[in-house]
Amino acid sequence: MTLKSVEEQIQRAMAEGEFDNLKGRGRPVDLEAYFQTPEHLRMGYSMLKQGEFVPAEVEMLREIESLRAQLASCADDARRAALQKEIRDKTLAFRMMVESLKRR
What we know:
About 65% of the residues lie in helices and about 0% in strands. With about 100 residues, the chain is an all-alpha fold. The termini are far apart.
């Protein structure tokens, strides 16, 4: 495939509106974090970001926050107690995970 045919395909796709609903459309591309990342890690990090992958500790914090939101709107005493226990357990697991990461 030549550069000219690639350019023609891009132009045709633009004319047909295939790029109209892209995430971040109309906003400038922020490449600061990209260039601050060491060159040998950029491709891997870019792939993880595009796949919306987050580290386990970030996912755990999201889960804890979700449980807290459920707790705030919960009226059932038994369910509240279960949510509080789950929050304590996940918070403890999170702290242990962070501590083990610090020791590396």
